[in-house]
Amino acid sequence: MRIQYPNYGKQLGWMVAALCVGAVLPLSGCVAIAAAGAGAGSVAAVNAGILSDYHAYYPRPLGTVQTAVLQVFSEMHITYVGNVKKNPDKWIIDGKTTAGTDVSVILKSTSQEVTKVTMGVGLFGNKTLSRQFFSLLNQTLGVQATVKAPSI
Predict the structure, then answer these.
(1) SS3 string of 64-97?
(2) Rounded CA gap, 26 and 31, in Å?
(3) 18, containing H or E segment
(4) Residue of 57, 48, 81, 70 whose CA lies nearest to 136
(5) Domain range for residue 55?
(6) What pLDDT was estimated at residue 10?
(7) Integer Cα distance of 118 and 64 in angstroms
(8) Which CATH number goes with the domain that contains 130?
(9) How far is CA 95 from CA 17, 49, 83, 88, in A?
(10) CA–CA separation, 36 vs 45, rounded Å?
């Protein structure tokens, strides 16, 4: 007597193929999604399918925002590690949380009076820390961040 088993091989093959395609699609680039939770006016960036960075625009000059970021670092007990001037319009400020997680803030001047702030925490991001950072930055600068660059 011969026992016949259902043909799971073909079904399993299709499921594996679908899972592979589903896993690879998010890796094809960077998708920006609105994230109201990261502080009003900020956007969350999804890199390789992982929520990682938040950004917002401030109607303030680059130097003013840079000073405010350092003040917010101090208030949040983020240790300032250093900064890099990529070009006259772009600075990267690095820090570490008390838990040792890397924090990176990129400041990019989009005009004389507007600065884009992008914040990343660790490899996968940290929504709570990012929300607190942008909230304190809003208070320190005395303005509300926007998702799109304000026309000034």
Answers:
(1) HHHHHHHHHHHHCCCEEEEEEEEECCEEEEEEEC
(2) 9
(3) helix 8-24
(4) 70
(5) 40-141
(6) 52
(7) 15
(8) 3.30.310.10
(9) 42, 25, 9, 21
(10) 12
Residue carrying the six token digits 């679908």: 18
Q: Is residue 28 assigned to a domain?
A: no
- The 3-state DSSP class for residue 26 equals helix
- Residue 122 maps to a domain: yes
Contacts of 140 (CB under 8 A, 6+ apart): 68, 71, 72
pLDDT digits (tens, 9 = 90+) for 65-114: 999 999 999 999 999 999 999 898 999 999 999 999 999 999 999 999 99
From residue 77, alpha-carbon distances to 72, 74, 92, 100 in Å are: 8, 5, 18, 11
| Residues 145, 152: Cα–Cα separation, whole Å | 14
- Cα end-to-end span (Å), the chain: 84
